[in-house]
Amino acid sequence: MGESFPMTGGDGPSSYTKNSIQQRASAASAKSLLTSAILGNLDIERSSRMFAIADLGCSTGPNTFIAMENIIEALTQKCKIEGYSSLPEFQVYFNDHVSNDFNTLFAYLPPDRKYFASGVPGSFHGRLFPKATLNIIYSAFSLQWLSKAPQELGDVNSPAWNKGRIYYTDAPREVGQAYSLQYAKDMDSFLAARAEELAPGGLMLILMPGRPDGTLPSQNSLGPFLRPLESCLADMVDEVCKSRNVNNLEFICIYIL
């Protein structure tokens, strides 16, 4: 079974809404690529009068609203180029974990949106929609998250035991392999599900962070940020041990990428 760790809900200072500026900027920089992909590859003639779009891993906004506006803007341009006298109706499905803060998401739906909106709770590592019903599948900064932590990382008898670490930077080779194997399984499940759900002539658009081939995890841009965090967590555990008179308290905190 997968594990559910949604982004922090609400709109407070620690919420995803107030702490997703980097994702927003990266998605904005990809707008021209997204538009080009829709104009050049989407077979709009094979769609019905209702055009279905799904954002997988939508979180709580506002990034998903900006992305949907960009997609519909490109679709409108595509329809004009193709000579359509009227636009199809747009249906947008916002998907995330069951425990995602959908209340905040729908509270901030743009009042002037050009689409019908609905929520689809559940993991995108499995089927979510009927066969061949989605014309565009979009996912931004979500597919780097695993469905669950590799079991080996919590097994004290495994060479991949990730003792005292929150990340795989500078960890034993077996730790990285455990993450890679889990990621391969997750991607296989994701792509198999989307192959069933994507309509003929449809398009899948994915934005996700990565690193160049041949580079080490320690060279990842997140590494410098996570090392101090790891050290702080270890110090906090030591303080708990001292305050509770515990000699051997182990902690395993896994940052899933």
Automatic annotation (TrEMBL):
Residues 1-21 are annotated as: Disordered. Coiled coil: none annotated. Keywords: Magnesium, Metal-binding, Methyltransferase, Transferase. GO terms for biological process: methylation. The keyword Transport does not apply. It comes from the Eukaryota. SUPFAM superfamilies: S-adenosyl-L-methionine-dependent methyltransferases. This is S-ADENOSYL-L-METHIONINE:CARBOXYL METHYLTRANSFERASE FAMILY PROTEIN. It comes from Salix purpurea (Purple osier willow).
